[in-house]
Predict the structure.
Amino acid sequence: IAHAKDMGRMLSKLVSYLPYDLLVQPATLKKPALEYSYIQTVATKIRSETGLAEDDELTFAHLIKKFNDLQAVIIPVLWGKKEKHENALHIYLPDSMTTWIYFNLDVEVHDFKFWMAHELSHVYTPDLKGDTAEDFADALAGALLFPESLAATAYKDVTRCRTNKTRLNKITEYADCHSISLISVFYEINKYAQNYDFPEINLGSAIYAANTNFNKRYYSVSQTIFQKEQPSAKDYIQNGSELFDTPFFNVLKAYLVEHKKSEGYVQTILDTPLLDAKGIYAELT
């Protein structure tokens, strides 16, 4: 938390360079709650606002557009392989009511999509704190990626299967179709079952082993974007700006040039090694 606060203080210096109307507060949820029906209602509203039909896949493009609609600044970073929450960092600056979200590109594509949906949920609930905020973000992320209408159909399909192997195969089909993890499909199916007092599907540890094997079929986001382990500073900035439609690098450049800041500022604000910071600094200035 202390580290995030330090980064927040650095980000606050960039606020005036943002291409947003800072007089208007982005939309937030009035009274967020963890009830299943409420979560599904919110997910349906958000999905419909992006133009999605009931059972359509929520794509990266949909998520990125929604972040921009809410004036949340995406900051793509290359932090290497991390565990869980270290792959995304959400910083809300209350004075300017601006949101900045770091996304680690060195993660598996399905996990990355979940983290994007998770962080989008945080954007809608800036007043939630601690475990409550995390639980809500997890719940809404799951509903955005695999809403009740899909979970209901998938539940019926999976319960018709007679063996765990065929159940896992069916869950994999849904995961593949919607570009999400088996875990997301499995959890949303059982949340649906719990809400309607249906028997839950129990796959034990097999679901986690199957998900691990499923992920091995895919490259990380950074490998997919850059086609290499270590992109050049130019490729990182250009692809990061274009693919995530983020103003961050233009904003950073304007601040660096105007205030004659050093590569140390880049190192701190991106939490990156000094050598990488020097390359990014040189490219921006």
Notes: The longest strand covers residues 98-104. The chain has a mean pLDDT of 93. The chain has 14 helices and three strands. The radius of gyration is 20 Å.
